[in-house]
Amino acid sequence: MPTLITPLSGWGRYPVQFCELERPERYADLRPDADSVIARGQGRSYGDAALNENGRVLLTERVNRLLEFDMVNGILRAEAGTTLAEILDVIVPVGWFLPVTPGTKFVSLGGCVAADVHGKNHHHEGSFGDHVLSMELILADGSRVACSPSEKAVLFWATVGGMGLTGIIGEVTFKLIPIQSALMKVHHHAAVDLEQLFRLMQDPDLDDRYTVAWIDSLATGKKLGRGIAMCGHHAVAEDVPDNFHGDIKPAHSHSVPFDFPAWVLNPLSISAFNSRYYKREAGRRYPFLSNHDSYFYPLDAIAHWNRMYGKRGFVQYQCVIPDATSFEGIRKLLEELSNSRRPSFLAVLKRLGLQGRGLLSFPMAGYTLALDLPIHDKGLFVLLNELDRIVLQHGGRVYLAKDARLSAESFRAMYPRYAEWLAIKNAVDPQNRFSSSLSRRLGIGGYPA
Ligand SMILES: Cc1cc2nc3c(=O)[nH]c(=O)nc-3n(C[C@H](O)[C@H](O)[C@H](O)COP(=O)(O)OP(=O)(O)OC[C@H]3O[C@@H](n4cnc5c(N)ncnc54)[C@H](O)[C@@H]3O)c2cc1C
Questions:
Q1: For the chain, what percent of residues have pLDDT higher than 90?
Q2: Using one digit for the tens of pLDDT, what is the confidence trace for 86-110?
Q3: Average pLDDT over residues 52-56
Q4: 268 alpha carbon to ligand 1 midpoint, in Å?
């Protein structure tokens, strides 16, 4: 199969590395035909999870057929390169929705399983892997095996959240959830500081199927952690007023046509944006209807928005802190960030439910904070090491799907089930054929635990 050697990056555009690309056209061509290979979906992981410097990257985008849709029971089987956007186009008009969705629909099914992605409903419904009924995996020796929570369960849970390192996920069968409408009923609640924001997010009277909070990452002092909790659910008949007969269109699509100069996003411009946004959203006191696209995927309306961070790219730092220490841990992280005067354009807080069953899955019961930080200079990496220290001190971990710079030592301390995972990896891939830039950086696989 022809290959092409080219510079490649994840969504954060850092790091950029030379990789050898292969793009199979058909399912039958999905094979690990190189000494070092990693599958790639839509490249929406931020760092180096879907990179393989000087090794092979298998692009799965053409392997994207919907294979079976049971419209009565809401069960879908599709090839792993199929995107959530392609699936939504088919399922929403007939009253079904994804059980779990990340904040972009331009991701592949394989990427959702390999990162065991979570959504705004994790505290109620778990992560993507919890809804997978079975999958077909292509192993290092080229054999194809079916696995599920009841068949080869050990391999299944090593693959869910396993970052593509146990094999190529070929096809996935998973459960959908029924919806009555494509609209969302949304209610915003403003918080003047972090304490109030935590109270809002823990309040059972305000809780909804989906909950997420935007934080003003540049607010300091008494306003530290001020934000907006956004709660919502799929609208049912009584949520829609009698006189409402139309549809609510998603936001217009825009595109960022070129790399922004580094100075465009600075503490002043972001602080001004955040103040305006806080004021506007805090003023929305009553529940309102929203298009599901605008609610779940606001950033998808701006194509190539990652160019806003300039040529050097950016890092998304996402961590989770367990419930018992979450308030203290998140407060310290925000303080450290605000003292650094490094602007995070986006700061998002979510509640997570039970620990994922995947051995390397990210979620654990607690709160997850995600920050988008432009790379202006090396000082950013010093700050991020400090954030790692705070996360470790509070018993938390960093999300591998967003990571580009964690150390191997911190990884081991954050993922206590690694040794268990490694035993399975060594059994199915003794030569460590499935490896990526992320796995080598973090010493995952191919080394004793
Ligand atoms: C705007 C935005 C919002 C996001 N929001 C969230 C969120 O809310 N929650 C969340 O959990 N994540 C979120 N993410 C991260 C994203 O969901 C994950 O990184 C996801 O894995 C990306 O899917 P992908 O198809 O682009 O995979 P890639 O980035 O191409 O790959 C990611 C990992 O999956 C592996 N992989 C991909 N396909 C296969 C396959 N067929 N077989 C084996 N391994 C495979 C790769 O080897 C790699 O390790 C967000 C990303 C963006 C850009």
A1: 81
A2: 999 999 999 999 999 999 999 999 9
A3: 97
A4: 32
Residues of the chain within CATH 3.30.465.10 domain(s) are: 66-179
| Spatial separation of the C-alpha atoms in residues 337 and 170, rounded to whole Å | 41
Pocket of ligand 1 (CB under 6 A): 11, 38-45, 49-50, 60, 80, 102-104, 107-108, 110-111, 114-115, 117-119, 163-164, 168-169, 299, 401, 436
Give 116 Cα–ligand 1 centroid separation in angstroms.
9
What fold, for 183-240+253-410?
Alpha-Beta Plaits (3.30.70)
Tens digit of each residue's pLDDT (9 = 90 or more) over 371-393 = 999 998 999 999 999 999 999 99
Burial class (CB in 10 A: 0-12, 13-18, 19+), 262: middle
- Of 31, 40, 166, 293, the residue with max ligand 1 atoms within 8 A of its CB, to mutate for a pocket test, comes to 40
Whole-number Å distance, alpha carbon 197 to ligand 1 midpoint, is 28
Give span(s): CATH 3.30.70.2520, the chain.
Answer: 183-240+253-410
CATH number for the domain formed by residue range(s) 66-179: 3.30.465.10
Sign of CA dihedral 441, 418, 357, 325: negative
Q: Which of 104, 297, 320 to mutate to test the pocket of ligand 1 (most atoms within 8 A of CB)?
A: 104
C-alpha angle 337/343/344, rounded to 5°? 85
pLDDT of residue 170: 98
Phi, psi of 320 (to 5 degrees): -125, 145
- Ligand 1 atom with the shortest distance to the CA of 164: 44
Q: End-to-end CA distance of the chain, in Å?
A: 35
- pTM score > 0.90 for this model? yes
Residue nearest to atom 18 of ligand 1 (CA): 45
Most confidently modeled range among 15-29, 251-265, 282-296: 15-29
Tokens standing for 67? 């294979």
